[in-house]
Amino acid sequence: MKAVVLAAGKGTRIRPLSDAVPKPMLPVADRPLAAHAVDAAIDAGADEIVLVVGYEADEVESFFGSERRGVPVSYAVQTEQNGTADAVNAAREHLEGPFAVLNGDNLYDPDAIERLFERRPAVCAVEVDEPSNYGVLSTDDGTVSGIVEKPANPPTNLANAGAYAFPEKAADWLEVPASERGEHEITDVLARVIEEFAVTPVTLDRWMDVGRPWELLEANEWKLGDLDRRIEGDVSDSAHLEGDVVVEPGATVKPGVVIEGPVLIRSGATVGPNAYVRGATLIGEDVSVGNGVEIKNSVLSAGTSVNHLSYVGDSVLGQDVNFGAGTTVANLRHDDGDVKFTVKGERISTGRRKFGVVVGDRVKTGINSSLTPGLKLGTEATTAPGEVVERDR
Ligand code: TTP
């Protein structure tokens, strides 16, 4: 079965991280976010992957190329992001026979994708506490009888998890009218499939939709937690590595470093001397973490440097960031309340008591900058030496 993976979105809620890197290509443990969905589809037996691309398409194409793990990869271009049904429709000419659709920004429990493929027509569902925030599936005698978006009175607690195994006929039903929010939605295609076929709900044990920056952190917490200890880089005898720590070939851990997993140190990265890295942390390719630096529960994207006497906690740093000596991140409010963050101009709760900062590509902080919880620094922003930064820039 072919698997269509949607990766054309603009990722507006995760800005500035998606300013140049499309959301599906943001790092989650040892691969880009969308590669987790692609790999789940391959593990479930997909014989071809069709990636729907649009925003920053080149980034996606240059990573995946024409095959992944022996499975052919092809591309369909969605020129305007008019919705998920429109995205699948862009791949129309690639479709023949039954086909699966997965979101390139979702993390799925891989076993469930295997069951999804086996039991088609099928849709993945996840049990949630507050179904009224989701598309909710109703069921009747073990099959799906309907789907309703964000209902005030949800019929079940089964949220649609955005993974579908459709019958061939569904390819003829992709041109659905625009919804209230002006998008052509794949859920309207699902509604038609439910009318005409017996659709099986496949329950996921774990699922995640990555839309906002702290969800990228949570995605890393999940996938870093799945790693098994593997030390293949150059690690000093006086470094102390505890738990599930992966040091890739070509990475260096210098004397006096303490690492508590889950931590992944990617190739080309250097840690130490005398640094303390705590899980769940991703130290990306060619990152440099220097003397007297503590990094906790954070993502440092490729090429970033935090070289001297700094603290970074519960934060996401984009590519090629440079933190000046003594830059300190606060990740906890004095009133112990949940940290807030601005998404598309609106200040909202992250639901996290511990959350630090989100930093765009090529940001430079001056020495001794103090960065407050929930702060966003846009691409190429700078801070002055000694500055206490409380407002986004
Ligand atoms: P969304 O998360 O709704 O959109 P987005 O990824 O652009 O993010 P934001 O809302 O922050 O701007 O998209 C769900 C999935 O569908 C995701 O994998 C992107 C994909 N998608 C497309 O491929 N084309 C589209 O037109 C839309 C709306 C989404």
Automatic annotation (TrEMBL):
In the C-terminal section; belongs to the transferase hexapeptide repeat family. In the N-terminal section; belongs to the N-acetylglucosamine-1-phosphate uridyltransferase family. One of its GO terms (molecular function) is glucosamine-1-phosphate N-acetyltransferase activity. Pathway: Nucleotide-sugar biosynthesis; UDP-N-acetyl-alpha-D-glucosamine biosynthesis; UDP-N-acetyl-alpha-D-glucosamine from N-acetyl-alpha-D-glucosamine 1-phosphate: step 1/1; Nucleotide-sugar biosynthesis; UDP-N-acetyl-alpha-D-glucosamine biosynthesis; N-acetyl-alpha-D-glucosamine 1-phosphate from alpha-D-glucosamine 6-phosphate (route II): step 2/2. SUPFAM superfamilies: Nucleotide-diphospho-sugar transferases, Trimeric LpxA-like enzymes. Residues 2-221 form the Nucleotidyl transferase domain. The lineage of its organism: Archaea, Methanobacteriati, Methanobacteriota, Stenosarchaea group, Halobacteria. It comes from Natronobacterium texcoconense. GO terms for biological process: UDP-N-acetylglucosamine biosynthetic process. Pfam families: GMPPB_C (PF25087), NTP_transferase (PF00483). InterPro entries: Bifunctiontional_GlmU_arc-type, GlmU-like, GMPPB_C, NTP_transferase_dom, Nucleotide-diphossugar_trans, Trimer_LpxA-like_sf. This is Bifunctional protein GlmU. Keywords: Acyltransferase, Multifunctional enzyme, Nucleotidyltransferase, Transferase. It catalyses: alpha-D-glucosamine 1-phosphate + acetyl-CoA = N-acetyl-alpha-D-glucosamine 1-phosphate + CoA + H(+); N-acetyl-alpha-D-glucosamine 1-phosphate + UTP + H(+) = UDP-N-acetyl-alpha-D-glucosamine + diphosphate.
